[in-house]
């Protein structure tokens, strides 16, 4: 594609070279620049992409997009723009010929529940014989192909490439998780969302957003991008506020919930230890729903999926059978098979709200003690302290004993995180044991378990690594549990 054509609608200043150069690819990483690429220099959180312009030119870049004044001796084309992240998204959408205008794009946002809602939705759309793509934390699915994602919502260039591959695979609907980071950092800018879904908003990711208000505004962006339907959980206080805010937009608002009045709502809810059933009430009639994952969480997540499928004219029958066909979601209330008389559950709960709701479900059915293994990844400062305090409080209130350990401490001191959590557990009169090494913590939990106890290992879910410092260490909880139980004779703690 000719550069002049690619940047036709862009506001820019040409600082060197010509616009009449042929561009065959886009790159935002100098290491991925190929011959005749355009390199977009992004000012990052850890390094400045402008520092790699020489490398990009050496690797074959024929044009560079910058947002800073740079001093490089070259006859390569350089154009300066206001915001390179936004321009990267715009160029990427254009380069791949606006793929999102060619299928139904459904975006799911919220602090918790995005992955679960997308999986439930995919099952429904598959049942309705639609060709459905999926993008999220657990990777991308295009037809039978699975691709790993670095981020829940990939960078705009990678995202538009995935969309383009979906078009090539005749995708009719793409269901994707839209993280608040991706909304703040313009990864999803210039994507045409048909449907926006809001699950809930509780404290998380405050290292980026700084305040709940900023976090809310980031999430709210999606509901101004979507053109057909905004689907919002009105039992959530921020959801209620969002619904009021977008009610008069041209995009049709559909609300869902259990407690507050909503277009799609659940009644006759019955909880059991491995599933939840209820009646879903829709403007087109009622259906009985069975979700094979327990707890109120999955009433909400399935209601979001039902509302979306309903808006996209999928029959109530396909909705019903689609949801019941989901036998479980990796790392979401996942029971690890053992031959023991206690139960081990792995779950991705990593916020106060998620942990509280998940443990409420466990408590409903626990015949023995609840042994909770958990840690917190939280930014330094007040927001991080609040998260540690909040999760400590939930642990004290719901668990019979909490084994406090590490959960991706990253660059922070794991001991000081644990000390903060423990302080909260003590104040809230909880029982605890602090073990920094997560593997040892799991072993300890198994060692003290007795008949009918439930060991609830929260925080990592599907993840198979632990990030300590900058190192990502393999860490597979399911394997650790199985291995420990197989050797349990050696580790029983009296
Ligand atoms: C904090 C954050 O969001 N960081 C994201 C951001 O990285 P960054 O801009 O800081 O990158 P950087 O390393 O400083 O580099 C700056 C620029 O220089 C370039 N570079 C760098 C080195 C080099 O040799 N040459 C070169 O050109 C880089 O490619 C980049 O363009 O842009 C990158 C490209 O899109 C992302 O992969 C990266 O996500 C990191 C891995 C991350 O951990 N992000 C998390 C916080 C995140 O985004 N999470 C959300 C949701 C999580 C949830 O829902 O719970 C997500 O959507 O994944
Ligand atoms: N609707 C919900 N309300 C509260 N907590 C939830 C809800 N849905 C899921 N959770 C909790 O959050 C955990 C993660 O769920 P899920 O992966 O669906 O969310 P997510 O939004 O995709 O998370 P992330 O963005 O961190 O990947 C679950 O294991 C569960 O403990």
Automatic annotation (TrEMBL):
Gene3D superfamilies: Mur ligase, C-terminal domain, Mur-like, catalytic domain, MurE/MurF, N-terminal domain
Location of the Mur ligase C-terminal domain: 331-461
Any one of the GO BP annotations: peptidoglycan biosynthetic process
Positions of the Mur ligase central domain: 108-309
Alphabetized InterPro entries for the sequence: Mur-like_cat_sf (IPR036565), Mur_ligase_C (IPR004101), Mur_ligase_C_dom_sf (IPR036615), Mur_ligase_cen (IPR013221), Mur_ligase_N (IPR000713), MurE/MurF_N (IPR035911), UDP-N-AcMur-Glu-dNH2Pim_ligase (IPR005761)
Residues covered by the Mur ligase N-terminal catalytic domain: 22-95
Magnesium keyword on record: yes
Gene Ontology terms: cellular component: cytoplasm
Positions of ATP binding: 110-116
GO MF term list: acid-amino acid ligase activity; ATP binding; magnesium ion binding
Post-translational modification: Carboxylation is probably crucial for Mg(2+) binding and, consequently, for the gamma-phosphate positioning of ATP.
Amino-acid positions noted as binding UDP-N-acetyl-alpha-D-muramoyl-L-alanyl-D-glutamate in the UniProt annotation, renumbered to this chain: 30, 151-153, 179, 187
Domain of life of the native organism: Bacteria
Pfam families noted in UniProt: Mur_ligase, Mur_ligase_C, Mur_ligase_M
UniProt enzyme class: ligase
Family: Belongs to the MurCDEF family. MurE subfamily.
Keywords, sorted A to Z: ATP-binding, Cell cycle, Cell division, Cell shape, Cell wall biogenesis/degradation, Cytoplasm, Ligase, Magnesium, Nucleotide-binding, Peptidoglycan synthesis
Residues modified to N6-carboxylysine: 219
Pathway(s) of this molecule: Cell wall biogenesis; peptidoglycan biosynthesis
Protein name in the entry: UDP-N-acetylmuramyl-tripeptide synthetase
EC number: 6.3.2.-
Record's function text: Catalyzes the addition of an amino acid to the nucleotide precursor UDP-N-acetylmuramoyl-L-alanyl-D-glutamate (UMAG) in the biosynthesis of bacterial cell-wall peptidoglycan.
Ranges in coiled-coil conformation: none
Cofactor: Mg(2+)
Subcellular location: Cytoplasm
Organism, scientific name: Serpentinicella alkaliphila
């Amino acid at each position: 594609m000719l550069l002049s054509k690619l940047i036709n609608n862009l506001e820019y200043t040409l600082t060197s070279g010509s616009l009449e150069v042929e561009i065959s690819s886009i790159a935002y990483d100098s290491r991925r620049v190929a011959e005749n690429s355009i390199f977009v220099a992004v000012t990052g959180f850890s390094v400045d992409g402008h520092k790699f312009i020489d490398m990009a030119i050496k690797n074959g870049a024929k044009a560079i997009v910058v947002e800073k004044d740079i001093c490089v001796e070259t006859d390569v084309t350089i154009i300066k723009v206001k915001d390179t992240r936004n321009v990267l998204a715009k160029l990427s959408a254009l380069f791949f010929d606006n793929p999102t205008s060619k299928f139904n794009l459904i975006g799911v946002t919220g602090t918790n529940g995005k992955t679960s809602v997308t999986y439930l939705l995919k099952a429904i759309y598959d049942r309705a014989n639609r060709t459905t793509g999926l993008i999220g934390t657990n990777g991308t699915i295009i037809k039978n192909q699975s691709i790993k994602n670095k981020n829940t919502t990939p960078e705009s260039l990678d995202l538009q490439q995935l969309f383009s591959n979906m078009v090539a695979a005749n995708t009719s609907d793409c269901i994707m998780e839209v993280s608040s980071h991706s909304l703040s950092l313009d990864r999803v800018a210039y994507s045409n969302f048909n449907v926006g879904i809001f699950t809930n908003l509780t404290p998380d990711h405050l290292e980026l957003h700084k305040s709940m208000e900023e976090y809310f505004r980031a999430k709210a962006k999606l509901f101004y991008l979507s053109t057909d339907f905004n689907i919002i959980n009105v039992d959530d206080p921020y959801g209620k506020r969002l619904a009021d805010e977008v009610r008069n937009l041209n995009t049709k608002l559909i609300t869902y919930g259990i407690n507050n009045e909503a277009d799609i709502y659940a009644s006759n809810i019955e909880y059991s230890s491995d599933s939840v059933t209820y009646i879903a009430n829709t403007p087109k009639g009622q259906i009985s729903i069975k979700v094979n994952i327990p707890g109120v969480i999955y009433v909400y997540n399935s209601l979001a999926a039902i509302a979306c499928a309903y808006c996209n004219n999928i029959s109530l029958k396909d909705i019903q059978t689609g949801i019941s066909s989901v036998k479980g979601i990796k790392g979401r209330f996942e029971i690890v098979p053992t031959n023991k008389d206690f139960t081990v559950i792995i779950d991705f709960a990593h916020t106060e709200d998620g942990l509280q709701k998940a443990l409420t479900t466990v408590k409903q059915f626990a015949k023995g003690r609840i042994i909770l293994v958990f840690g917190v990844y939280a930014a330094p400062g007040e927001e991080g302290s609040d998260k540690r305090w909040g999760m400590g409080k939930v642990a004290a209130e719901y668990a019979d004993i909490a084994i406090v350990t590490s959960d991706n401490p990253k660059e922070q001191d794991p001991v000081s995180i644990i000390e903060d959590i423990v302080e909260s557990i003590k104040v809230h009169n909880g029982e605890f044991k602090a073990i920094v090494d997560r593997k040892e913590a799991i072993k300890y939990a198994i060692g003290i378990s007795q008949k009918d106890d439930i060991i609830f290992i929260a925080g990592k879910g599907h993840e198979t690594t632990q990030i300590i410092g900058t190192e990502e260490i393999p860490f597979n909880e399911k394997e650790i549990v199985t291995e420990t139980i197989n050797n349990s004779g050696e580790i029983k703690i009296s």
